[in-house]
Amino acid sequence: MQTFDLESQGLRALNEALHAQAENTNQTVWEVVNARGSHAIAVGLDAPIEVNVMGSTGYYCAGMNSQATIKVHGSAGPGVAENMMSGTVIIEGDASQYAGATGHGGLLVIKGNASSRCGISMKGIDIVVHGNIGHMSAFMAQSGNLVVCGDAGDALGDSLYEARLFVRGSVKSLGADCIEKEMRPEHVEILRDLLERAGADAKPEEFKRYGSARQLYNFDVDNAAAY
C-alpha cells in the first residue's frame, strides 16, 4: 500500500502520482492522510486502483473518475464525483450539494445524507444515498438511477428526462413533469442489485419509483406555466 501525506507532500504531487498509474500498475492501493478538507483530491483518475482518503474533503473530490475505487472516510464537500465516468466512489459520511452532477457512469454511494441538487443532470451514473437528499435533486436528470433510502426534499426530479428515481421515505414535493410511476418487476431487480452493491440495508419493495411524465419534451401552450 502506498501512503501519501497530503500535508507534507501537497495536492499537486498526489494527483500527479495518481494520474501516472496505468492499467497494469502494481501500486493498486493508496492511502491519503491529512486530507483536512482539501479540494480536488483524486480527480481525473483513469486506472483500476483503490484510493482511501482518511478524513473529510473539500470541493470536487473524485471528479471525472474512471475505473478507480475512491473511498472517503469522512464527509465530502460540493461536487463530489462530478462528471464521473466509471468506477466506484464511496462517501462514509455526508455529501454537500450537487453530488454526482453530470455523472456518465459508475456508482456513487453516500452512506450519510446528501445536500441539495444531488444527481443534477445525471447522464448514466448510479447514485445510492443511505440517508436523505435535499431540494432540487435529479434536476434535468437524463439517465441512470438515483436511490434514496431516506426522504427527498422539494422539487424532486424537476424537468427530468429518463432517469429512474427510487425513494423509500417521503418526498416533500415533486418537480415539474415528475410523477410517481409503477414499480414493475424489472425495476425491483435493478433496485435490488443497486442496494446490494451499495451495502444498503433496505428492501426494494419498500421504495416508490418516480420518473418523467414526458410532457415537457415538446412545447405545449397548456404547459406554459411549467416551463
Automatic annotation (TrEMBL):
CDD domains: GXGXG (cd00504). Residues 22-176 form the Glutamate synthase alpha subunit C-terminal domain. InterPro entries: Glu_synth_asu_C, Glu_synth_asu_C_sf, Glu_synth_lsu_3. It comes from the Bacteria. Gene3D superfamilies: Glutamate synthase, alpha subunit, C-terminal domain (2.160.20.60). This is GXGXG domain-containing protein.
